[in-house]
Design a protein that fits this description.
This protein has eleven helices and 20 strands. With 379 residues, the protein is of the alpha/beta class. It folds into two domains: 221 residues, Alanine racemase (TIM Barrel, Alpha-Beta Barrel), CATH 3.20.20.10; 127 residues, Beta Barrel (Lyase, Ornithine Decarboxylase, Chain A, domain 1), CATH 2.40.37.
């Protein structure tokens, strides 16, 4: 069968709905309250949505604080014209210390060597740098152990050019509504906050998306929101106790096009290894998308896509740049027809949570895979 293909620059396109991103920010700001700041997590290239574009869109909605992993990302945001506060969460190389002063960045501290180095650079620049200390209250990742915090606070006071702007931590299980571990960790952090009271503008912050949605008492002065801004719930579903908040809107969709349609006889092997063999005459559509585009090989023989508003199954092993779907039950399919991998078509919707379940992972990874491996279009 033949038809006319789209003239777009790529068969595969990730579409980012900027209005949905901005609406999610408004919903979440209303949920946590006007007095609580939102740090928008734009690391991992904005969870696949585009770091710079995401920051620009959120800035237009009133967001004035952003979180990234690496200092190089923070510099890229500044060079793109992003104002407000930019946190770097993974530290930095010694050669990058001057960048905190050149680009007005906020440092997150979790070791003594970093304090010493930033102090030296601050003195050399004749200025001061406000830093946040990260405490490990139960994540088992980056952070100062609570028993060592007093030592760090004393050390910080002895470092010329540095001042304390905040104390932070991170929840490991806040995506589990009703988690007793999260409640216990909240109490531990609360005790720390009471033990080391700081005058404004110092901030306390521990809440990620899960905590902000399911443990709102833990929001403190600021929340660090990631997956919720992009329209998904950290537990993979809209939890029962979350019904009072307006529904978040998925920001990303992912489409491709059919490049061949053909009918094969019974007993035909499909793709590498013939992991799928037709049991009847089967009409297949060949799609120019594969694991190099984020459609992981683990979706072979179990993933689904939407064609003409109907769900169709991926058959055979997914290749690097191709996969096949069974369209025997769909009428009028032609080359060039749109295929929805993530998003809605007609009355059907495939979400990142559903794809994540097929992959055996989480929505975060699905969004990063699709967004970082395909052309993005912003609408």
């Amino acid at each position: 069968m033949t038809g006319q293909l789209s003239s777009s620059r790529s068969f595969n396109q990730v579409v980012i709905a900027s209005s949905a991103l901005q609406q999610n920010f408004r919903i979440l700001q209303q949920w946590v309250g006007p007095d609580i700041r939102i740090m928008a997590m734009v690391k991992a290239d904005g969870y696949g949505h585009g770091m710079i574009e995401t920051a620009i869109n959120l800035s237009r909605t009133g967001c004035a604080c952003f979180g990234v992993a690496a200092i190089s990302d923070a510099i890229s945001l500044r060079q793109a014209g992003i104002k407000g506060q930019i946190f770097t969460l993974l530290g930095f190389l010694p050669s990058q210390a001057q960048s905190y002063f050149d680009y007005d960045l906020t440092a997150v501290i979790f070791d003594h060597q970093t304090l010493e180095l930033l102090s030296q650079v601050a003195v050399r620049n004749g200025t001061r740098l406000a830093v946040h200390l990260k405490v490990d209250c139960g994540m088992g990742r980056l952070g100062i152990m609570p028993a060592d915090l007093q030592e760090y606070l004393v050390h910080l006071e002895q470092c010329p050019g540095l001042s304390l702007a905040g104390i932070m931590s991170h929840f490991p299980r806040a995506d589990e509504p009703g988690s007793s571990h999260t409640t216990e960790m909240y109490q531990k952090f609360k005790k720390i906050c009471a033990q080391y009271p700081q005058q404004p503008p110092a901030l306390y912050h521990i809440a990620n998306s899960g905590a902000a949605l399911y443990f709102p008492e833990a929001c403190y002065d600021m929340v660090r929101l990631g997956i919720s801004l992009y329209g998904y719930y950290p537990d993979g579903a809209r939890a029962e106790q979350d019904q009072k908040i307006d529904k978040l809107i998925p920001v990303m969709s992912f489409t491709t096009q059919i490049i061949q349609v053909k009918t094969v006889p019974p007993g035909s092997g499909i793709s590498y290894g013939h992991s799928y063999i037709t049991d009847k005459e089967t009409t297949i559509a060949v799609l120019p998308v594969g694991y190099a585009d984020g459609l992981l090989r683990t979706l072979s023989n179990k993933g689904q896509v939407l064609i003409k508003g109907q769900r169709v199954k991926i058959i055979g092993r997914i290749c690097m740049n191709l996969c096949m779907v069974d369209i025997s039950e769909v009428q009028g399919v032609e080359v060039g027809d749109e295929v929805v991998i993530l998003g809605s078509q007609g009355s059907e919707t495939i979400t990142a949570d559903e794809i994540a379940a097929w992959m055996g992972t989480i929505s975060y990874e699905v969004l990063c895979l699709f967004g970082n491996n395909n052309a993005r279009i912003y609408i």
